[in-house]
Amino acid sequence: MKKSSLSFALRGISLLLGIVGILLVLRSTELGLAKADSLTSSQDEYGSGTRFWLVQQSGIAAYRTLGAILAGVGLFQALRPLSRLEMQRITVAAEQEPGVHVADSLPTSGFEQGGASRVQGPRTDTASRTIQASPQKLYWAFVDPDVLVRWLPPEGMRGKIERFEPQAGGAYRMVLTHEGASGSFEGKSSRDRDIVEGRFLELVPGEKVVQAVAFDSPDPSFAGEMRIIWKLEPDGDRTKVTVVCEQVPAGIAKKEHEQALASTLRNLDRIVS
Predict the structure, then answer these.
(1) I need a labelling partner for 197 at 20 to 30 A (CA). Which of 73, 80, 131, 177 fits?
(2) Distance between CA atoms of residues 242 and 129, nearest Å
């Protein structure tokens, strides 16, 4: 069963439990009052407070408490707003249905920003910036892990490199952690983290760096390997840096992704200039 279908099924079960809880409360209250009346010779002889006490003393009160719990928990789970992750799953599931196209986008934050893509099939995102530095100087910012970790994470995130082998076929692993106070961010690997597993496919000093990356995520919308090409093109005494991301996973929103790439390039400019 798809995760989106399972989510709606659980909401339906929660709603049924909530309704059962309400009915249980009403019925137990009715039975409790009837039992309280049966314990008194005359209703006029006792006030409403005494009748309520008698109801509480009866075993039926336990059923009413159980009903209240079922009603509260069931209705809360059934009627609570959809989380961002649930909305992404629903959108991705809709895009996978033949003939279905979703036009709206979901706002997200962070490196390779999370949010459902509105484009079916492989997608390419790109960003560029001209930086006051030579191609050789910029290239070393890609292969020195101590420098790389200072500029690659976009605004609002910090990075930690756990493995780094800057050679063709070499692997690397980076953990990106969200530092902001915003509660809207949802990481791909955990609540506030993106874990990136990558490979270096090609390194040409002073010209380009080609990588293949994948996200460690339980969400299928972030599955698959994305190819990232960094190009360094001389422009007088400056260098035009272009990043091209191919086969972008469906769970990454185009607008926020390109904003994150632009933020990363600004960081690179600040570090090397």
Answers:
(1) 131
(2) 7
